[in-house]
Every structure is written in structure tokens, then in C-alpha cells.
Amino acid sequence: MDGSFTITGQENINKARLIALKFGLTMEIKGIRMSRGRTCYSIIKSEFGLKGNRQRVLDQFTELIEPKRVVYDTIELDCVEFNDYPDFCNAYAVYAEWTDGTSLTEQELEAIPSDVIHDRAHEAYQ
Length: 126
What we know:
This protein is mostly helical. The protein is 46% helix and 6% strand.
């Protein structure tokens, strides 16, 4: 095997392009150009309407293309009743934070998968 791979499907090709643009801009910040043509910085600014210096554009672009994630260790539960072990069917999330430090809304907390709630409840029990 030569280590090569093929990306198929328009959606996957578009995702790979975004990843390449992000990597290219990261390298440009370090002083390395990916090509002799337009810079990734200029492509990203024009296609996505972002403004600012290279680092600021990279930060904005990263927020656009990467989904926010919940920080697992910030999930706080209520109704972890130890007489309900091992099911913890009444436990629910009352607080959690996204990777950017903002708190989840009540609706977002309700969308946390039950298996994650169950795992956190078991951790609290130990």
C-alpha cells in the first residue's frame, strides 16, 4: 500500500477542501505558503466574508467549519439517586459547557444523549 486515499462524493470533497484551507492558513501564519497562487487567507476572506488579520480569520473560520463540542467534564447532573443504581433513570443534565466556554441552553442540555448522562451518573456514584 502506498498510503494514498481517494475522497469520493461532493460533500466529502467540500469538507476536505475546508480542512485544506484551514491547514493552509495555519501554515501561512507560520510564514509558509502553500502555493504561488492566491493565499488561503485571501480565499477564505473572499468566500466566507471574514475580516481581520490572519489569526482572527483562522479563529472565525474554525468556528464556522468545526462543530462545537460539549466538554464532558463540565456536565453536571441532578437527581442522581443512589437507590436507583445502576439505572439512574431520573438523572438529567443541569449544566454543561461548550468547548468555547459558553453554557448550554436548557434545550441543548435536554439533547445530551442518555448514555452520556448514564455514564456521568456512574462516575458520580464511584
